[in-house]
Amino acid sequence: MPVHALRPLPPGAARSAICLDITRLVSRAGLGPPTGIDRVEIAYLRHFLGSEMPCWGIARVGGGQALLDRAGLSAVAACLADPALLGPEDWRAFVSRRLPPDRRRAEADLRRRALALVTGRSLDRALARHLPRGTVYVNVGHSNLGAPLLAALRRVPGLAIAVMIHDTIPLDHPAFQRPGMAERFAAMLTRVGRTADLAICNSEETRARLVHHLGRLGARLPPVIVAHLGLDLAPQAASTPPAALRPDHPAFLCLGTIEPRKNHALLLDVWERLAQTMPHAALPHLHVAGRRGWCNEAVFARIAAVQAAGLPVFEHPALPDAELAGLLQGCRALLMPSRAEGFGLPAIEAAAAGVPLVSADLPVWREVLGDWPIRLDPDDTEGWAATIRRLAEAPPAPRRPRPVPGWEAHFARVLPRLLAPQPEAAACG
Fold first, then answer.
1. Degrees (nearest 5) of the Cα angle 323, 325, 327?
2. What is the pLDDT of residues 103-138, one digit of tens each?
3. What is 17-230+408-427's CATH number?
4. CATH 3.40.50.2000 assigned to 251-393
């Protein structure tokens, strides 16, 4: 991750150093293209490494919590961006055979570069020894928020804790989760409420849901700031659409993990309906880009079935960013019939590229995108089929990119609050 000219601290900053938790990025090593939350952690890592403020990193690995100074954090960031730079496995990695190879090597690199590798009751003493007074621990990955680390952080004199909450979907829609996920998420949210000095929410909708659930749980409500997530709007290398994308044929894209709340079943219903009403040669192509998730075996079986029946449905589980960009730009619209989203970065990416968005009517997209999406009921198969057919049969419309949030605006809003003295939080009734 290249670092350019270092950014100055915001005027009047009272706190002087950052400790960024990168557990999520380490845990995702070797698992394919980054998810939405991964991209947020990457953006924070790049920003802090590009700042003049002192910064450290921390991650949970085999053997405990690994604490990194700026040099170690920068080296690990480069290795996570390019797995070819990862070093060899160490003895702990050798006995952790259940982990993917790149993650074993990434954890070994952290252990080699760590200022300290500690666990248990010595953790707070190690943190206090290495981190300057006034450090802010920042966690934007929904990971490594267990009771032992948060309690140790709370015992470090002068240290503040800031946690980003991306969504409360496990509590809003427990039926879409793995067994036990709602209970684990509620416990995590309660711990964050009890210990955090600042909660960062990606939308007003997320803030409202956070307040609701902490109140329902009888938990403390920390101070909250809302800052929309950004996109990396810097010029990228030329996009290269996958071979399955035919430039002379209308195509549509559904982007995101294939999990129940994304409602891929509706799109399969739509394509079966279109196959009943259109000549086969005229059927638009559906590209489903994203890894397979959980609790969705019926949808996985249906994808195989419609493909076996000859419907033009293409699954792309691990496209690199350049091919994903090419696929988005080459499609008539992005389709997102999701029943719930935290922020929905693919929708924001579509707006930035001027690609039409056909979506369910979700509060977060009303907040961020206004009237940009074509909004449809996520259960209205006929409405979705008619809209997709209309877009497929019409000449491609000129692309008119929409202004969307950028990371500079996000950090301009977050950093002054992050680095200011933290007020006491109120109990959430």
1. 70
2. 999 999 999 999 999 987 889 999 999 999 899 999
3. 3.40.50.2000
4. yes
